[in-house]
Specification:
Number of strands: 0
Structural class: mainly alpha
Strand content: under 5%
Radius of gyration: 14 Å
Oligomer: single chain
Order of helices and strands: HHHHH
Distance between the termini: 36 Å
Number of domains: 1
Mean pLDDT: 84
């Protein structure tokens, strides 16, 4: 995978805001339902914080926000209720996005993720 450019962006700010609204409304409820199935939970939650961080490059935030929006969409390519396969498409999209922008996920994002996961599991 190639790294999104930090200098130029093809990302659409209006789409970013639509995705952001969808993510802000659906990320935590869905994550609570499926957290035990996500082998890269820490990376996923750290990516969420990276996507919300205004210090992250916009292109990075847009990549992550798009993947997170796909994750929370009520309708997706393979419905989540299908045993064994339903979460596979979400996981593939999320894992690819996280790996693509991993160098932008900071220790601060990871710390926030650890705190949020601990609260969620309590």
């Amino acid at each position: 995978m190639t790294e999104p450019s930090d200098q130029t962006s093809n990302a659409d700010p209006e789409k970013f805001e639509r995705d952001r609204a969808r993510v802000e409304g659906g990320f935590w409820p869905k994550l609570r339902r499926i957290a035990a199935k996500v082998p890269f939970l820490n990376d996923l939650v750290a990516a969420y914080y990276c996507a919300l961080d205004p210090k992250s490059p916009f292109q990075v935030r847009a990549v992550l926000m798009g993947a997170l929006a796909y994750f929370v969409m009520p309708i997706d390519f393979v419905p989540d209720f299908i045993a064994l396969f339903g979460f596979a498409d979400d996981a593939t999209v999320l894992y690819g996005a996280v790996k693509m922008v991993a160098k932008h996920i900071t220790p601060e994002h990871r710390e926030k993720a650890a705190i949020a996961i601990a609260k969620m599991e309590a």
